[in-house]
Design a protein that fits this description.
The chain is an alpha/beta fold. It has 17 helices and 12 strands. The strands form 2 sheets. The protein has a 9-stranded mixed sheet, with helices on both faces.
Amino acid sequence: MVDEKVYWMGWQYLLPGSARRIWNLVERFGSPRAAWMASGEDLVARGGFEPRAAAYLVRCRSELDLQAEVARLQELNITYITSDEKGYPHLLRVIFDPPPGLFIRGSLPPAGEQAVAVVGSRRPTPYGVTVAEKLAGELARAGVTVVSGMARGIDSAAHRGALEAGGRTVAVLGCGVDVVYPRENRRLMEDIIEAGAVISEFPPGSPPEAWHFPVRNRIISGLCRATVVVEAAERSGALITADLALEQGRDVMAVPGPVTSPQSRGPNQLIKQGARLVESVEDILEELGITRLFPAKHLQAPVMPGLTADEEAVYRVLSGDPVAVDIIIENTGLATQQVLSALMFLEVKGLARQFPGRLYARREKPTRF
């Protein structure tokens, strides 16, 4: 790793999530190396730090072995790229306070590939999950990279939708890229790394502290031409991402929802304020001037697994909107045990998904068959 690059990385270890402070520091000293070598007195006089903060930085700096950290990154199969390197995303580079460098597991999209953020509530309704998965899947099949934050709820649904369509997705974390958060997303994280990338400006080992997430949201929006909010309460972090997207000069779109649902207040308000209303993926593609990037023959064709008579009857009753088991039983005329068995196998075959309250919805595309 080139010397200057090591010092950029070092400052991200010392001042995690403080991109603007790092940029100002390097500007004042002329280079990250010069800033790194500065004495405590210089950090006060030229760097603008309080004496106690400068002393703390000097102590932490003396305890940090940069070459050992470089070796650790290699052991963990983590790539580090700085903002002046070729692989650094151009759209992110031009925001007000881009990360000096990114820690990456996996592979970022090639230059010029379109990206759209799909974000929303950590406590979504079944409607929100269904819509997020559907939009993300259709964006992926149109050749668009889906970006989100790998949080519970809408974020996870967006990543899954893109993956199930055989597309590319990028997760921006509010912790180190070697930290799985939330824990139940371990398999999802592995799949994202295989099909795209997991990235962060926070160094490896960084815990998912609350203040990290508003900071990382500017990266989610900064990577993308547009941000789509699916569901969000009035004070949701997804609305922070939307605000940041507007500040960065990017498009903001929103999926409308029932006026009786608290999770619809955020996107409905955005639409009132002028955000593009999204009813289908075509609304997103049209707004961005994106045509289908690949002809249909290049898209991943779903393989429909074989169904028994009971499974076929239950599958015909299901739709994208969650429905209760009792209604499925009534509409199929099958016995309760037959319906429950068929639903279980439809889930296994990737054709149905279960929501809390014994609600089931159809997956239009098999997930992994």
